Automatic annotation (TrEMBL):
Keywords: Cell membrane, Membrane, Transmembrane, Transmembrane helix, Transport. It comes from Fusicatenibacter faecihominis. Residues 1-174 form the ABC transmembrane type-1 domain. The lineage of its organism: Bacteria, Bacillati, Bacillota, Clostridia, Lachnospirales. It is a multi-pass membrane protein. It comes from the Bacteria. This is Carbohydrate ABC transporter permease.
């Protein structure tokens, strides 16, 4: 949701320096995650979020790629729709909720699937931020089947198969919107 609000601001709201700020924001995609790893860790410690799932949620909530993807989709929405809503008495928040978000369902579904897949398969983040065994993610659990002198391949394969179930279910639910988005993008040409 944070990505859609930022994308709306960068795509539809007019303010000084908007394009330069977006370019600076977009350039943060070039910074490797490992560079900001230690500062993020210290911030999570200072906020007393170490060893909580909130540390994973907050670090994953702000996604530059998501803002870029949604902004590009929102730029394709005609400004005349927002102007008509403004004439009818809708403010910026109403335009965002009632006009822009419903028209971005396909991009939102694509972003949800991609983000969920990325977070679900993340190994490094949970390894750094979570310490209690009961809070660890499935990827860290699968890594415990590997030991120094032997590996339980059967358990790893069974766990991997089970870990695919939520991803497949999410894709099955969002598939209609993703296919619509691809078809819409292909027709736009």
């Amino acid at each position: 949701m944070t990505a859609s609000r930022a994308a709306y601001a960068f795509a539809k709201l007019k303010f000084p320096g908007r394009d330069k700020i977006f370019l600076c924001y977009l350039s943060t995609m070039m910074i490797p995650w490992y560079v900001i790893l230690i500062p993020q860790f210290f911030i999570m410690q200072k906020l007393h979020l170490y060893d909580t799932h909130w540390s994973l949620i907050l670090t994953g909530a702000f996604n530059v790629f998501g803002v870029f993807l949604l902004r590009q989709n929102m730029l394709s929405i005609p400004d005349s729709l927002a102007e008509a809503a403004k004439i009818d008495g809708c403010g910026p928040w109403g335009i965002y909720v009632k006009i822009i978000l419903p028209l971005c369902k396909t991009s939102l579904a694509t972003l949800v699937v991609l983000t969920f897949n990325s977070v679900w398969n993340d190994y490094m983040g949970p390894m750094i931020y979570l310490d209690t065994d009961s809070k660890k993610t499935i990827q860290l659990g699968l890594a415990t089947f590997r030991r120094q002198f032997d590996t339980d391949y059967g358990a790893i394969m069974a766990g991997t198969t089970l870990s695919l179930i939520p991803v497949v279910i999410l894709y099955a639910v969002a598939q209609k919107y993703i296919v619509e988005g691809i078809a819409y993008a292909g027709v736009k040409g």
